[in-house]
Amino acid sequence: MVSIPKYKDTSLPFEERVNDLVAQMSLKEKASQLIHKSCAIPRLGIPSYNWWNESLHGVARAGVSTMFPQAIGLAATFDRALLEQVGDVIATEGRAKHHEFVRKNDRGIYKGLTFWAPNINIFRDPRWGRGHETYGEDPYLSGKLGVAYIKGIQGNHPKYLKAAACAKHFAVHSGPEELRHEFNAEVTTKDLYETYLPAFRDTVQDGNVEAVMGAYNAVNGEPCCGSETLLEQILRQQWQFKGHVVSDCWAIVDFHEGHRVTSTKQESAALAINNGCDLNCGSMYKYLVKGVEEGLISEAAIDRSVHRLMMTRMKLGMFDDEKDVPYANIPYERNDCKAHNELALKAAKQSIVLLKNDHHLLPLRKDKLKSIAVIGPNANSRDALVGNYEGTASQYITVVDGIREALPEARIYYAEGCELYHKNNSGLDQPDDRISEAISAAERADVVVFCSGLDATIEGEEMHESNTFGSGDKPNLELPGLQNQLMKQLYETGKPVVLVNLSGSAIALNWADEYLPAIVQAWYPGAQGGRAIASMLFGDYSPSGRLPVTFYKSSEELPDFHDYSMENRTYRYMKNEALYPFGYGLSYTNFAYKPANQLESSFTSSQDITIQATVQNIGGREAEEAVQLYVKRLDATTRVPNYELKGFQKISLQPQETKVVAFTVTPRELSLITEEGTRVMEPGHYQLFIGGSQPDKRSQQLTKSNMLTYNIQITGEKQLLPY
């Protein structure tokens, strides 16, 4: 009988196999495994592996794949089951592509099974350019959707991962982009534990995420990718995280070049690996061996990180025969298949938020329209469909494409009207030279669909200085360029104007809210986006998206962008009335809420509270409703949010149909974070709200829907809860 090394013996536990494998590596070989482009070790049968892959809303940067709505649009669905389905499809396509690439001996970047998503940073300020990569401004929503996505990516096999997800960027990261390599985010202990950490905690403890990526910035003086507080004390000790930590790309260089907390490359490498950053996206870990020679790093620290990385590769089945790994035989034909693109279309439909619909202008009647003008810089834009960290779709349906498809017999007038942010299209053009064409088109149409907004070329990650918007952050919340001017001139034609705004963040649509009859927020809806938008405009389905961010009236009411205090930020702490509140969105029907169970008025501080509500579709159209539960603490001993989302469910109802929705509110959901960062369940008076929106005055004014309110008292002793 031929003996095999322990690390190849599939009958042994992964832990034992990994211990054997690492023990056989030299120091230099071990160090070679700790950079994102890991080297092959032929004598041990270890092929090269590139850890860097992206899957924010589809398999990215590796050729054709199904392109879902950008993450902020997925968040607007308020649908955990859908996010898990999306994650599962992405992992299916990632597996199909990975194994096909390996058969061609292609092991390059973006070809692996370690996906650096989701981005669960809190979108604390609408000016942040990367906010559209996130699930919005709320810690609870971000955490629950992040967990759902991770479960879809990683699968449910008892032994193997379908793919490895990565929660990023840990932590307290949300701009400014231009300073991210040197910026120190100063944050209170309360804000840290109440706002910036909960989604990460959920993905670690509830989602069992395989990896966590550190952020570029420092937090309270410690660079995140070398932070003992974040990586050792919180992530590994408090939360018992067992996976691996990866640096953001070239973030460890920032230790000595930006943050200046180290002096040499080997000191930077030492700071990172000694504090638990296992994998370096970049090249600083090439200096690990020198760091060991200088006494800055122990070989045991390197062993620890190599062990964690080899464990991930073991879980992905990379050392086992493909016939024994259930996900290794997914055929290439599953990539970009019809069923997956149908799911992308479904996700796009559910992501769209109807912000205004005076006199029921929408849905538009197909049988009444002989002509329609589709105007604006985003009307025929592929860039406005996909956002960033995108793959390549096999087909793109822009808004004008979707409307042409939906109205094959009508005359469709298309005009760009203006450039996205420049005032002319080329150096020879006169300013506003395209507006006259747009007005001519509008004058000949029964209705105008104006497609405004942004795209990821002007809101996104740190960009080249020549970019009009600088680093990718927004200077304010206004539509750029001539878009507002064009919108007003279209309105002056007297034709009904439907505004379809495609952006990854909140825009101050104050003038449109006052004058235009209908406003739609479509985000970056994915490759099928134009089809989804047209279907909504013409009433093939009722919109059900809800805002995962607050739409403010102006950036002037916001705190300084560099200030990480949550004071006067997001719906949880804002003082002014929102233009459109978090959790808000209209439907083509109406829903009525009634209590379904008799709720006691008093509970102890250790009891769970079960609330049942009856939701009825009292309109004439089938529709989905995002049922939301909020908590308000009335007599807390410390500063607490205005309201906090603590439950949400997406349900579908036929006309006049009734369903009962149940929520269980635990002591954790009612607890608060003290100024010292302690989680406490306090006795006192609380309010619970169930409805189709947030319980604030502005939401009630806009939706005209009833909200269930429960007043309860918590008795007993104050309870300290684990974070």
What does this structure look like?
- Helices cover 28% and strands 17% of the residues.
- Strand 12, helix 17 and strand 13 form a beta-alpha-beta unit.
- It has a six-stranded mixed beta sheet with strand order 9-14-13-12-10-11, sandwiched between helices.
- 56% of the residues are buried.
- It is α/β, with parallel strands linked by helices and 723 residues long.
- It is globular, with a radius of gyration of 26 Å.
- It folds into three domains: 329 residues, Glycoside hydrolase, family 3, N-terminal domain (TIM Barrel, Alpha-Beta Barrel), CATH 3.20.20.300; 198 residues, Glycoside hydrolase family 3 C-terminal domain (Rossmann fold, 3-Layer(aba) Sandwich), CATH 3.40.50; 131 residues, Immunoglobulins (Immunoglobulin-like, Sandwich).
- The longest helix is centred in the first third of the chain and has 24 residues.
- It contains 22 helices and 25 strands.
